[in-house]
Design brief:
CATH superfamily: Ribokinase
Shape: globular
Number of domains: 1
Number of strands: 13
CATH topology: UDP-N-acetylmuramoyl-L-alanine:D-glutamate ligase
Number of helices: 10
Radius of gyration: 18 Å
Strand content: 15-25%
Distance between the termini: 42 Å
Helix content: 25-40%
Strand order of the largest sheet: 5-4-1-8-9-10-11-12-13
Length: 315
C-alpha cells in the first residue's frame, strides 16, 4: 500500500514555485497531423486546460535535448505553464505521435522509446508531488517499466487529500491489466470513455454490465470517490458513493476530437477543487470538452470562451 505524506504547503526547496493546483504527470509530445504539428500528450493537455480554467498547473514530464523539446518548452512558457518539472533527456528524443482522424474516432501511432518513457523522480518532483492539490495521470506513460515505476512513486508521495485522478486513456497496444489495476488502487477519481468501459468489462471478465453498474463496481472494488464515463456526442455520466449525475451531448461541428476528453478532465478537476455539486461540475466539464472538440488540436487557446462557460455554469 502506498504511504501518503502529510506535508504543509510551501515553496519548493529547489527553485521558486508555489504550491500547484494541478500536475499533469506523464507524456508531453508532438501531435503530428497530416497537415500540421501541434503540442499534445494527455496529461499535458489536462494541465494546459486547467491553466485556462484559472488553476496553477504544470506538466511533470521529460523531453529530449533536441529542437522539438526546445519548441515544446517554449510553447508551455508562452502559455504561462511552469516548466520546472520538465526533465531533459540527452539519450532519448522528444516524443511524437502520428494522428489520423477517422470520422468520430482517431488513430494514433506513437514513437517508441521517447524521452517520456524514462521519467525519473528527483528532488524537485518530490517537493511538487508532496504539495500538489491534484495530480492527473494515465495509462500510456506507463508503457515502459521506468516511467511506470516513477509514476507510482510520485503518486505515493502525494498528500492523502490530493485528488489523484486516473484518466484511463487506453492507447492500444500500450496497456496491461496489471498496470490498470495498480493505477485504480492509487486513484481517488477515475475517468474513462464508453469504449474503454467495453474494453475493461472484457478484461475483468464481467458480464457486460450497464455503464451505471460498471461505475458502481469500480467504486466499490477500488474504494474510489468518483467514476466518470464520457460518451462523446452522447454526453457523460458520473457516479460517486452518494450522488449520480448525467448530461446530454452538445451539438457542435467537430474540428477533431484530439484533447477533448482531456479538457473534460480538466473541467472536472476544476469543479472538484471548487467543491461544486456533481451535476454542475459535470455540466461544466461536458461543455469544456465540447468547446475543445470544436477547435483544431489538443491545446486551442480559449481563455475568454472558458471564462464565459464558468460564468454561465455558476449562475
Amino acid at each position: 500500500m502506498p504511504v501518503w505524506h502529510d506535508v504543509e504547503p510551501s515553496c519548493f526547496t529547489l527553485g521558486i514555485m508555489q504550491q500547484l493546483d494541478l500536475i499533469g504527470l506523464g507524456e508531453l509530445l508532438w501531435d503530428c497531423f497530416p497537415d500540421r504539428r501541434l503540442p499534445g500528450g494527455a496529461p499535458a493537455n489536462v494541465a494546459f486546460h486547467a491553466q485556462q480554467l484559472g488553476l496553477s498547473a504544470a506538466v511533470a514530464t521529460r523531453v529530449g535535448c533536441d529542437p522539438l523539446g526546445d519548441e515544446l518548452l517554449s510553447y508551455l512558457q508562452q502559455q504561462g505553464l511552469s516548466t520546472n518539472l520538465v526533465q531533459r533527456d540527452p539519450q532519448h528524443g522528444t516524443g511524437t505521435v502520428t494522428v489520423e482522424p477517422q470520422g468520430t474516432s482517431t488513430r494514433y501511432t506513437f514513437l517508441e522509446n521517447s524521452a517520456w518513457d524514462f521519467l525519473a523522480v528527483d528532488a524537485t518532483w518530490q517537493a511538487a508531488m508532496a504539495t500538489a492539490k491534484a495530480v492527473c495521470f494515465g495509462t500510456l506513460a506507463q508503457r515502459g517499466s521506468v516511467s511506470r515505476s516513477t509514476i507510482h512513486q510520485c503518486l505515493a508521495l502525494t498528500q492523502k487529500d490530493c485528488l489523484r485522478v486516473y484518466d484511463i486513456n487506453l492507447r492500444p497496444p500500450f496497456y496491461e491489466r496489471e498496470w490498470i489495476e495498480a493505477s485504480l488502487k492509487l486513484a481517488r477519481i477515475v475517468k474513462l470513455n464508453d469504449d474503454e468501459v467495453r474494453v475493461l468489462t472484457s478484461m475483468f471478465g464481467l458480464a457486460s454490465p450497464a455503464e451505471e453498474q460498471f461505475a458502481q463496481w469500480l467504486l466499490q472494488t477500488y474504494e474510489l470517490e468518483l467514476v466518470c464515463i464520457t460518451r462523446g456526442a452522447q454526453g457523460a455520466l458520473a457516479i460517486s458513493a452518494n450522488e449520480q449525475a448525467e448530461v446530454q451531448g452538445i451539438s457542435i461541428t467537430v474540428a477533431d476530437t484530439v484533447g477533448a476528453g482531456d479538457a473534460f478532465t480538466a473541467g472536472l478537476i476544476w469543479s472538484r477543487l471548487q467543491h461544486w455539486p456533481l451535476q454542475r461540475g459535470l455540466t461544466l466539464a461536458n461543455r469544456i470538452g465540447a468547446l475543445v472538440a470544436s477547435r483544431a488540436g489538443a491545446m486551442p487557446e480559449l481563455h475568454a470562451e472558458i471564462a464565459s462557460v464558468i460564468a454561465d455554469c455558476s449562475s
